[in-house]
Amino acid sequence: MSSKAAVLVAGSWGTALASVLAANGHRVSLWSRSREQAEEINRERVNKRYLPNVRLHESIRATDSLAEAVEGAGFVLLVAPSSAMREVASRLKPLLTGDECLVHATKGFEPETLKRMTDVIAEELPQFDPRRLVALSGPSHAEEVIVRCPTTVVVASRSRQAAEEAQDWLINSTFRVYTNPDVVGVEVAGALKNIIALGAGLSDGLGFGDNAKAALLTRGLAEISRLGQAMGAQPQTFAGLAGVGDLVVTCTSRHSRNWRAGYGIGQGKKLDDVLSEMNMVVEGVKTTRAAKSLAARYGVHMPIAEQLYEVLFNGKPPKAAVEDLMGRGRTHEMEEVARSSGSWS
Question: Does the pLDDT at position 335 exceed 70?
């Protein structure tokens, strides 16, 4: 097996995962769309734009050539934004054999089609058996991974062999990797938690307390699970690392760009201004739009996502959205259980 790994692209998460692979003894090619950024990384040994305070491992080499990045790589890790995944995968088609261990670590849906990332990749890379594609998710901020704070993630694939191969490439003493066969659940949980993180930031920006945030996380997880199961996910996945684990870290951490975006909106800033100030992809914004469409497609009730959609895209005042959430008709906490059990046993 080749000891070379390719990581595409050189954002904060891609750079952190490149560092994990390098720490495991692999040669890592880190692809950037920008020649200037690639040259700067190689010269300064720092990704100044995304992780400016951490010196990169000597075995990481950046390049702006996609062909050079993946040539001879046994492990290819896609970390492109959800809106760019199809374009990057399409460019890879003539460059990969289909024998590589192919993993993505992107949390979102394709905006136009609402497809999960493994479906997008499978369509653009027919030389790969779709059952062998791997999705990586879990509570893992790049800022902590790159300085080797203890972190646990999950890799999901319909092929146990493919999941374990990805696990072998990535696992080490500070980056623990679990396997999971539920690709749908892992991808849906990883995408939808960003919506709740926006809500958590908004709640904090409004000055609400811990009670509100606890309620938001709990009811948000119920929404994520409802939609995920309607899409074919296994319910237990949402109690794991990709579900509640990632939800907690994204909704409570200062590193979370989705939380920061929500916080700015809660303080009265306009969405466009917040995104302009951050100058980074905030996946939760596009995912909120996707979730509204998916909820309608699958007939799933998602009141938190619906209210966030109104705030983000229709100018609804955040406080009015909270009032509407709190003023809804009374219901049973475990709606599905209450409907199916028929008793208070």
Answer: no
Tell me the C-alpha to C-alpha distance, in Å, between residue 87 and each of 81, 148, 239, 331: 10, 32, 33, 44
Cα 44 to the center of its chain, rounded Å: 28
Sheet hosting strand 60-63, strand order edge to edge: 60-63, 27-31, 4-8, 75-78, 101-104, 134-137, 151-156, 175-180
Query: What is the b/e burial string over 315-326, where b = at least 16 CB atoms within 10 angstroms of the residue's CB?
Result: eeebeebbeebe
| pLDDT score of 256 | 94
Q: Is 273 marked within a binding site?
A: no
Element (DSSP H or E) covering residue 171: none
CA atoms within 13 A on the CB side of 33: 9
| pLDDT value at 132 more than 90 | yes
3-state secondary structure of 243: helix
Q: Please list, in sequence order, all residues whose beta carbon lies within 8 angstroms of the beta carbon of residue 16, skipping any fewer than 6 positions away.
A: 51, 140, 142, 143, 145, 146
CATH number at residue 164: 3.40.50.720
* Domain of 117, in residue numbers: 4-181
pLDDT band at residue 340 using 50, 70 and 90 as cut-offs = very low
Instruction: Given the residues 4, 48, 115, 193, select the one marked as catalytic.
Output: 193
For residue 243, is it within any domain?
yes
Is 13 annotated to bind ligand?
Answer: yes
193 is catalytic: yes
* Statement: residue 18 has pLDDT above 90: yes
Per-residue pLDDT tens digits for 138-175: 999 999 999 999 999 999 999 999 999 999 999 999 99
Establish whether 140 is an annotated binding residue: yes
Last residue of a domain, one of 129, 164, 181: 181
pTM for the whole structure? 0.94
Distance, in Å, from the CA atom of 339 to the CA atom of 3, rounded to the nearest integer, reads: 53
Residue type, 270: K
Do 167 and 217 share a domain, yes or no? Answer: no
First-to-last alpha carbon distance for the chain, in angstroms, is 56
- d(C-alpha 10, C-alpha 37), whole Å: 9
